[in-house]
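Customer ticket, subject: "Can you confirm the structure for Alpha-glucosides ABC transporter, ATP-binding protein?"

Message body: Hello, I'm evaluating your service for our small team and ran a test protein. I'd like someone to confirm that this is what the system normally returns, since I don't have a reference to compare against.
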Amino acid sequence: MARMTLSGIKKSFKSVDVLHGIDLQISDREFVVFVGPSGCGKSTLLRLIAGLDTISSGEFHLDDRRMNDVAPSRRGIAMVFQSYALYPHMDVYENMAFGARLMGLEKDEVEKRIDEASKMLRLDPLLKRKPRELSGGQRQRVAIGRALVRKPKVLLLDEPLSNLDAALRSDVRLEIARLHREIGGTTIYVTHDQVEAMTLADRIVVMNNGKVEQFGSPRELYERPANTFVATFIGSPRMSLLNVERDSNNLGLAGSGSVSVSRLPQSDERDLVIGVRPDAMTVSTDESTEGFKGSVVYTEYLGENTYVYVRLGDGTLVGIRSSASVDLPPDTPVVITVASEEIHYFSRATRER
Ligand code: ADP
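Agent reply: Thanks for trying us out. I re-ran your input and got the following:
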């Protein structure tokens, strides 16, 4: 079992508060991804879980055991670093054996575990090589292998794909997903890349400024983002955010007119932010169409479709997915229609700058 409970976790370095109170419950065998912009505290949180830094306040439990003061080597948690942190003078076998020996395992057991891990990671032909004789992807696999021979309950991976080239990334990503299934433990994976997060995770923790913005499945985050930060962080190309004023069933946008909508938010606030994804809008050159008026800034032809970027009356730039055949030169006046049922409503007061 590897169920994790973090309650009110805070971390400060000297006088700088980096984590402001993290509450998370991670289930046994879950693949959880921490995602967020650089500097938001993802690695710090991972290091606290691994025991490489101390928790300033709050509680961390693994199953029913309080882990705050447990030494890293006794947690049953293994971490794979972004830099791999392999010992350059040791061969692959020795790199994998080192941590297992520190755990006090018998020689035969170490051998057995290395045999298993190296087969699982297809490292068996490379056991006598030194790290410098390996490709980036192979080094990555050794770093993972070294973690696996410890048979951890929890595997932590810190930006494991960041040193690999684009072609290798998707291969290694698949490999990591497979490993997670085969090992049957709990995995926590850190990345700043929302596409990686969406494709790998059972559940995603979206972090920003040392806080959790939302914790949910990829589908929940995409379909029901809790706030404008999550709304614009998840999904590519980004969701557009528009400041609108509501007057009964009408949403007015400064300088662009108004649209009537069939579905409204539950609150009766007047100042709202609406979020609309690129495929929930259409662009028309027929100026009698009901919608927000604007003019084309540029278009991006992507083969299957074309993205049309339109500047609205209040200066907001929105991206709309259109058919590939669309041909709209810059400055063409257009009208944007919005699918009512696909509008996400947010309070203006909580809009991220
Ligand atoms: P992320 O992994 O999301 O990029 P980090 O957890 O590495 O973010 O860092 C979060 C913040 O904590 C950053 O502002 C970083 O400068 C600060 N930080 C991280 N480690 C230390 C440290 N050892 N001493 C001081 N500040 C640190």
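A couple of notes from the result: Residues 13, 16, 18, 36, 38-44 surround adenosine-5'-diphosphate (CB under 6 Å). The CA atoms of residues 183 and 351 lie 41 Å apart. Feel free to reply with more questions.
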